[in-house]
Amino acid sequence: MKKQYPIKTKYGTFRASIWYDKSDKAYLVETIGFDKTMTFGRTLAEAKHMAQELIELLVESALQDGNIVVDSAMRVIGRRIKPESVLQLQHA
What we know:
This protein is an alpha+beta fold. It has helices at about 45-65, 85-90; strands at about 5-10, 10-20, 25-30, 40, 70, 75. The chain has a 4-stranded antiparallel sheet. A hairpin with a 5-residue loop joins strand 5 (about 70) and strand 6. The protein starts with a strand and ends with a helix.
């Protein structure tokens, strides 16, 4: 049975679904809000830690691509820079 957990990261709190898979003998983690991303851990604590690391990597990747990320508490992480602003910064 999948259960949702809050995962605290350096970018805010995000949600992940975690469940135990008997055939894999591991806790599987599916990140919520990030398409098709999963990780796992041998214990629930390890699964939560792996979820934290995965979410932080996904947020960093999204920010590098210029995207805005919203955490579970609806806090905005990152901001878009208008192309005009980049040109002004380069000439300043």
